[in-house]
Amino acid sequence: MPHESLVYSQAFAIREADRLPLACGAAHLRRRLVVAIGTIVIALVVTPLAAAGVDTATATDGSSPPSASQEAPVRLRKATPVELQRLAEKTAFQRGQFVREALGMSLTIPREMHLLAGADARKADMALRGEDDPQLIGWMTDVHKTLTDSPLRPIRIRWRHDGLVPLNPAPFDPQQLLEAARTQARVPRLSGSEGQLVGYDSAPVREDSLVFWSEERRPDGAKAGVHDCHVLRLARKGVLELSIVGVDALTAKTCLTELRTLAASVRFMPKQDYPAVPGGEPKAAYSLGALIAQTQ
User: Average pLDDT of 209-238?
Assistant: First the structure.
């Protein structure tokens, strides 16, 4: 399937060529112009993906979410072992500080971890899960492991640029959140396992701009549940999410502590941090409770 940018560029080239004077071989010039521009776009789109070892017929480069104007969705799949090995060889992990200047945010990568950022994070995540996550900005795992190792238990770092999420006026009611998750339409805004919410291993708690909890979900057709751990760091223009998903009950007992320790190192610039007194900031279209329960 042709890449959307290739289709648009060729269409633009044709429109520009049609404006050339219709004299002295104009039709020949138009054909040459379309071919030349089409070739340049193909090289720009395909070469970086091929170099990463990802099949360009079935995956995107993860640099931007799919456009609604595409005629058909791009088919995504997990990478083959050979593709995964090639991607691992070309992937550079980071140590030390993880900085996102556009968000005014930084965090300290723990000594025992290393991190993939930006497009590298999305390519790795796509290769392992077969899904593209446009909110993913960081992918962190044990410093002694790479993409081809198993099992992996990555920390997924995501940013939702949805505006200021108003604080809850009272402590969360776990039973109320559970009931909402079971009876209301699901809107999956957070990284997490599929299936019905069974209950909370650790009920949601908010401490200032930090929200944390762990939950058990039962995927459709599964005999046992899986556990997801979440920490949210609220900010002026959105929410930073740290999540470990799909782990067993034993791991679930420690993953929340691990995420809270990481969240303690997160720093936002004053103008980007959650305001002590909210003013005229654009508000998110959902409440904090709806974000936790993943409902409307």
Answer: 94
Domain that holds residue 247: 81-293
Q: 172 with 27, same domain? A: no
Q: Are residues 139 and 115 in contact, defined by beta-carbon separation less than 8 angstroms?
A: yes
277: in domain: yes
Model pTM score: 0.75
The backbone region for 67, taken as left when phi is positive above 0, alpha when psi lies in -120 to 50, beta otherwise, is beta
CA distance 44 to 9: 12
Which stretch of 34-43, 206-215, 228-237 has the lowest confidence by average pLDDT? 34-43
Give the confidence band of 277 by pLDDT, cuts at 50, 70, 90. Answer: confident
Same domain, yes or no: 109 and 251: yes
Number of folded domains that form the chain: 2
> Whole-angstrom Cα distance, residue 38 to residue 3?
11
**225: in domain:** yes
pLDDT at 10 over 50: no
Residues 35 and 167 both lie in one domain: no
Is there a cis peptide before residue 151, judged by omega within 30 degrees of 0? yes
The average pLDDT across 224-248 equals 96
Place of tokens 């520009």: 16
Whether residues 97 and 173 share a domain: the answer is yes
Residue 231, number of CB atoms within 10 A of its CB: 25
The residues that bridge with 99 in the sheet, in sequence order, are 106
Whether pLDDT at 234 is above 60 = yes
46/131 same-domain check: no
Report how far apart, in Å, the C-alpha atoms of 105 and of each of 133, 137, 155 are. 20, 12, 17
Judge contact between 98 and 106, C-beta under 8 A: yes
Mark whether 12 and 142 lie in a shared domain. Answer: no
